[in-house]
Amino acid sequence: MEPQPSAPPVVAVVVANEPGDWFEEALVALGSQDYPNQSVLVMDAGGDADSARRVASVLPDAYLRRVPTRPGFAAAANDVLQTVQGASFLVFCHDDVAMEPDAIRLLVEEALRSNAGIVAPKVVEWDNPDRLLEVGLVVDKTGACASVVDRGELDQEQHDAVKDVFAVSNTCLLVRSDLFNELGGFDPEMGNHGADVDLCWRAQVAGARVVVAPAAVVRHLEALGLREGFGPATRRRLRLQHQLRAVLTCYGPWHRLRVLPQIAFLTMVEVVYAFVAGRRELAVDLLGAWRWNRRHRGEVRAARARVAATRALPDAEVRRL
Fold first, then answer.
1. Lowest mean pLDDT among 41-50, 274-283, 293-302
2. What is the 3-state secondary structure (H, E, C) of 151-194?
């Protein structure tokens, strides 16, 4: 389909990490989009020697870029900051996401209609698309997040209203390219564990809306966890580290002064409970999150300065969600 000048240009960015046999199906779905001004960029972040052939066999017009080493989702996605120009919107997705044919068009339409900076679709199970995985995330003052829906909940259109949310998953999201550049992209240190919440938080600080458009639907296989080589304990450790990093980065001085003592107190309560319950590893991870962020305090200060430079809303306004 020839690009139409009236349609804002969109670059769909697939971050591929040694994808399995589902990859072709995901690429076919991306190539079947009815949006008239779309290009596809596949970021090979896993060093798959066969990726060029696999992409070319399904999407011969797609661009393939190999990312050195294995940087993780966030750093691989950030490569677009140097390599993509002229796009109005960027759509980031995992390599195990299959979009419905109208998904990108509906995401763009909602971004324009709602004047939103970030828009996400409804995410359903790969093999059971009548079962919900995500329609946005809720986040508390400590940075802990949870899905708006119960995983596996039957989709009866009960969550089909367009709504503002605090954050959305990087499973699949559309972001205005100017906003993504202004924010400096994802926090590369967070990989695939908390970078989405951090990005959405910083976007709202900068005055952008984060919206879910459930009319756009994608299926998600959730295969990334199987390939990372991380067990539940490692994922928990990373989540706690990056959750605290987002708090230290995104709050302004006054809210940090108010919230950090509360988080420290809650951490100590959880540590005591973990020891009493015989969950020593959890206690170590809770305390380790503070030590890890102290070791990375230089990075946190730099990230905090970038947030301050883009701040358009006070924390009290951001925390309404």
1. 41-50
2. CCEECCCCCCCCEECCECCCCEEEEEHHHHHHHCCCCHHHCCCC
Read off the DSSP letter of residue 9: P
Beta-carbon count within 10 A of 291 CB:
11
DSSP 3-state of 206? coil
pLDDT reported for residue 46: 73
Helix (H, G, I), strand (E, B) or coil at 35: coil
Closest CA to 93 of 134, 49, 153: 134
Q: Which residues of 46-83 are buried (b: 16+ CB within 10 A; e: fewer)?
A: bebeebeebbeebbeebebeebeeebbbbbbbbbbeee
- State how far Cα 48 lies from the chain centre: 23
Strands 163-164 and 97-99, how do they pair? unpaired
Could you tell me the maximum CA-CA distance found in the chain, to the nearest angstrom?
64
How many angstroms from the chain centroid is the CA of residue 156? Answer: 25
pLDDT in tens, 9-34: 999 999 998 888 999 999 999 999 99
